[in-house]
């Protein structure tokens, strides 16, 4: 039986294993957790809960970190903010809450919210001019640290590319690393729908996006960081190798109960990665 001594092995030796066969190391992580009679899904009972040895090693040796955007990478829910801007905030927020809480199919919620909003191309342009991104404290520093460690940063969101692309550019994240929904407009700029070919327009989209990242970019282990049920879904379906729940904006107990690690401050991730 493996013991915790495995997780304190010489870092360079572990790095060598990762460089040789990352898939094998990923499988080994899971095997060790199982043989120790543990489940890697643990509930964070209070702010500041220390991460397990599994979480620390998996995070440090990850090759890619995928972030949800709304209420994680940024402090607000962009769809809700656009809805407020258009005067239909309460109706749309109710559907967002149901989608993030896991009580409503995501695609149905997206269709419902957009039908209520019917945003024009000019609406989106005006929104961006008047509502700068509210980036979560610690995110710029975390992104720089990850990039310095040669870890790829991805944004995997149920939000819209029209909103997220400027944010990605600002933080030096390649647009090819953004997986999000895309609004479709008619020739006159009025709302025509959304691109149904995007991974994240439906439930199960985030796991599908992460599998695509692994297969296309040849990166793993992959960590998913997010606040909602659609983010947790990436871990429960076996796409993400580690799920870090974020409750710094909205605490969702159903998400916290199944996260590998649940945090309230981005600095907690920085502290682990910087040492």
Automatic annotation (TrEMBL):
Top class in the EC scheme: hydrolase
Pathway as given in its UniProt record: Amino-acid biosynthesis; L-serine biosynthesis; L-serine from 3-phospho-D-glycerate: step 3/3
InterPro entries named among the record's database cross-references: HAD-like_SerB, HAD-like_sf, HAD_sf, PSP
One Pfam match: Hydrolase
Cofactor entry: Mg(2+)
Active site: 68 (nucleophile), 70 (proton donor)
Recorded GO CC terms: chloroplast
Keyword Amino-acid biosynthesis: yes
Any one GO molecular-function label of the UniProt entry: magnesium ion binding
UniProt cross-references to NCBIfam families, sorted A to Z: HAD-SF-IB (TIGR01488), serB (TIGR00338)
Protein name per its UniProtKB record: phosphoserine phosphatase
Species of the source: Chlamydomonas eustigma
């Amino acid at each position: 039986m493996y013991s915790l001594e495995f997780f304190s092995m010489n870092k360079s030796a572990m790095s060598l294993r990762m460089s040789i066969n990352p898939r094998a190391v990923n499988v080994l992580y899971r095997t060790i957790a199982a043989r120790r009679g543990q489940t890697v899904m643990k509930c964070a009972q209070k702010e500041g809960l220390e991460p397990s040895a599994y979480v620390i090693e998996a995070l440090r040796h990850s090759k890619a970190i995928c972030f949800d955007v709304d209420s994680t990478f940024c402090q607000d829910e962009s769809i809700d903010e656009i809805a407020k801007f258009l005067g239909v905030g309460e109706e749309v927020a109710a559907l967002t809450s149901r989608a993030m809480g896991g009580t409503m199919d995501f695609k149905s919620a997206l269709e419902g919210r957009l039908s209520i909003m019917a945003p024009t191309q000019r609406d989106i342009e005006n929104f961006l001019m008047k509502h700068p991104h509210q980036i979560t404290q610690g995110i710029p520093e975390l992104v720089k640290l990850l990039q310095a460690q040669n870890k790829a940063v991805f944004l995997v969101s149920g939000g819209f590319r029209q909103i997220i692309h400027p944010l990605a550019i600002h933080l030096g994240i390649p647009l090819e690393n953004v997986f999000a929904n895309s609004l479709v407009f008619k020739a006159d700029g009025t709302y025509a729908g959304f691109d149904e070919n995007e991974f994240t327009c439906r439930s199960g989209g985030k796991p599908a996006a992460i599998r695509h990242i692994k297969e296309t970019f040849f990166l793993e282990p992959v960590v998913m960081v997010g606040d909602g049920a659609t983010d947790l879904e990436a871990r429960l379906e076996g796409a993400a190798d580690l799920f870090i729940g974020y409750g710094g904006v909205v605490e969702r107990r159903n998400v916290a109960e199944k996260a590998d690690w649940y945090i309230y401050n981005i600095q907690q991730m920085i502290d682990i990665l910087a040492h």
